[in-house]
Specification:
Blueprint (H helix, E strand, L loop, with lengths): L15 E4 L2 E4 L6 H13 L11 E5 L11 E6 L2 H10 L5 E5 L2 E4 L14 E4 L3 E5 L6 E3 L4 E4 L2 E4 L5 E3 L4 E6 L1 E4 L5 E4 L10 E6 L9 E4 L6 E4 L7 E5 L2 E4 L6 E4 L7 E5 L2 E4 L8 E4 L2 E4 L2 E4 L7 E4 L2 E4 L1 E4 L3 E4 L2 E3 L5 E3 L8
Length: about 350
């Protein structure tokens, strides 16, 4: 697990002391909204989480100005592009970029990623990033931590396309593509990397809001693939993954080394497209924990696993499960069958 790195915050705000899940403000004159941000970030760190000092803080705000923006909290930038350039020019690897509430429309001609490697981001609630056309919001080797309550939308392409060698945590309220896959993880895009390790964590998770990964008209909501000799670990926590298009909600191939796996933990998986397909169709080791799977179409099976399948305390509704490989039942309740399901295995 990758945790937020919260520690002494230097510069114009002096410093804060963080110890055992609490912190003390030692400076005066800190505005309320910024203090709330630090409260929220500090609360994310569980006991034993790693603590690293942030050398610089950068703010993005809809009313910011790229011409006058500076490192610090008093003069925010208006765009991710300008804030990322400032982060790259800071000479420090310990940087936090805070994204204030508002709608950020990304220029369709911008071909880069909204995130910069080795920079941490925190999104306030109601911070929305949207791109109507052009390349994805993330299309590179992603090496960042994204925390908070961001909403990420794309109208014509996938939203996130992290490439081989990506690692980090991405917290979010919603990730949605209106016409394509929402998240497309390419684990064999170049070679020479150390594998892919990504953890997607939904925020404000309930049945009706928060933690959404949605494809409105794609071949899946989440895809991953690329057989490599590296170790690849992909996890989704507290997510509602839904495909309203023509394929599974989750569709991927993570074969390769014995350590490769894809894990769904405390998730709800829905498949409601018109064309019959399983809700989950994966090749390689797949782990389900405390997850509810519903297939709302004419597919013969709800889950199709070609590989080892580990499950513990899950609810599988409506359709049977097909497993080609090892079947491992955890110590909790195992699979709970919805009354509408006619058989399992």
């Amino acid at each position: 697990m990758v945790y937020p790195n919260i520690a002494d915050l230097k510069g114009s705000i002096d410093e804060r002391v963080y110890t055992n899940n609490t912190y003390a403000v030692t400076a005066e004159g800190i505005n309320g909204s910024f203090k709330d941000t630090i409260d929220t970030l500090a609360a994310m760190i569980p006991s034993g989480g790693s603590i690293t000092q942030y050398a610089n803080i950068i703010v993005i705000d809809p009313n910011g100005d790229d011409n006058t923006g500076e490192i610090g909290i008093s003069k925010p930038f208006a765009t991710f592009q300008a804030a990322n350039i400032a982060a790259g020019n800071s000479g420090s690897g310990n940087i936090l970029i805070i994204v204030n509430p508002g709608v950020y429309l990304i220029d369709p001609t911008f071909t880069g990623s909204i995130f910069q490697d080795f920079v941490n981001y925190y999104f306030h609630p109601e911070a929305i990033v949207q791109k109507q056309s052009g390349p994805p919001l993330v299309y590179n080797t992603f090496k960042s931590n994204v925390f908070g309550y961001g909403v990420f939308l794309h109208n014509t392409t996938p939203v996130f396309v992290p490439l081989e060698g990506s690692f980090g945590t991405i917290e979010f309220v919603a990730i949605q593509s209106n016409t394509q896959v929402a998240i497309e993880i390419n684990m064999a895009s170049g070679g020479g990397f150390d594998g892919t390790r990504l953890n997607f964590i939904g925020k404000n998770f309930t049945d009706t809001k928060g933690g959404w990964i949605i494809s409105q008209n794609g071949s899946a909501a989440v895809t991953y693939g690329g057989i490599t000799s590296q170790v690849n670990e992909i996890t989704f926590e507290n997510c509602r993954i839904q495909n309203n298009g023509s394929g599974p909600a989750v569709n991927g191939d993570i074969t390769g080394t014995v350590s490769n796996y894809m894990k769904l933990s405390n998730c709800r998986i829905y498949n409601s497209g018109a064309i019959p397909a399983p809700a989950i169709a994966t090749v390689g080791t797949t782990v389900l924990y405390n997850t509810h799977v519903v297939t709302q179409n004419g597919s013969a099976v709800g889950i199709d696993i070609q590989g080892d399948f580990y499950f513990d305390n899950n609810v599988i509704s409506n359709k049977p499960v097909s497993v080609t490989g090892g079947l491992y039942i955890g110590p909790a309740a195992g699979i709970t069958v919805n009354p509408a399901c006619d058989r399992i295995f």
